[in-house]
Amino acid sequence: MATPTPLTDYQQTYHWRNKNCGPWAQEWVRTTLPTVKAEGDGNTVSITSVTSVEGDCDLGQRKGKLLTIYDMEVSAKWAGSNASGDEFTGTLQLREFTHEAIDGLTDYVFETGIEQSGGAADAFRAWLRGALPAALKPRLDGFRADLLSAHGMDTPGSGVSTPAAFKAGYSPAPPGEQHVRAVAAVAAQKKREDAGEKKGLRTVSVSVSAQMHASAADMWGLLTDAARVPLWSRAQADIAPDVGRKYTLFNGNVSGAIISVDAPKKLVQSWQTKSPGWPADHHGIMTITLDQGSDSTKVTFALDGVPADKEADITQALEAFYIRGWVNVRTPLTPDSNRWG
């Protein structure tokens, strides 16, 4: 049986470093947004105050690269007037202030409310919905550069210096440990889980596994290489083992994002299916582990956050589409499944 390719010296010695920049990020939002103003068609509007900032912001270093990871939700108040001198006030919700927007993976999500009513208010709000986001977006896009300027790390080729206080806050992983803390992805998932709890959604966990006559390295390729996934899924896939990257399997019927990668042993991803009865705003957490023995490798698909009333259906689907799908490529020895609530 083929053995996994040994790690290079460079791979064995790189560090993952992480700093919590949440307090700085909240202050940036509270001081920057009230400077935003928009004008046009005789109308004017400005942010008067930021009422709340929730979420996470971290700056990390991996393999000499700086990574900005943030996911926040912002509430603010605005005030404006039209050409006739009518004055209006209202609220702004920025639902997703995330690094994925700058990376082109998603868009900023704005929601506006107005306290007044009537024809003039309706006309002003229609203008506001386009003008205020357009004025905010350049400021939000500048967040990453300001974060790097304030909290950059000393790293070869980065060109960014690290304040002494930041160096004291490093949390390096031991050499040789491939450990990635996908803070933003985990934080986003926590929000979804909290929302599910508030809605009274009871969840359970399911697990299916099988022993395969293959090396962990071979199986890792079948899990994470978009060109090889169809060998067992018999459907189009879009996936790569990059933290934060979104993926789709089974022609888009399963989707999510990569949370952490420990090749070729463990892959953690958020997981959602279009199966009837699975809530559209709910994600589970799929943890795939590959435990290589002397002559075979055990693969386990453990899914947390399964709606309780879908336990049997999801377990059956995992066995049918994941475990049995692999039979087309490798012959399993002793498939088994476990369930727990």
TrEMBL record:
Pfam families in the record: Aha1_N, AHSA1
GO molecular function: ATPase activator activity; protein-folding chaperone binding
Domain Activator of Hsp90 ATPase AHSA1-like N-terminal: 18-153
Classification via InterPro entries: Aha1, AHSA1-like_N, ASHA1/2-like_C, START-like_dom_sf
GO biological process, one term: protein folding
An example Gene Ontology CC term for this record: cytosol
Similarity remark: Belongs to the AHA1 family.
Protein name: Activator of Hsp90 ATPase AHSA1-like N-terminal domain-containing protein
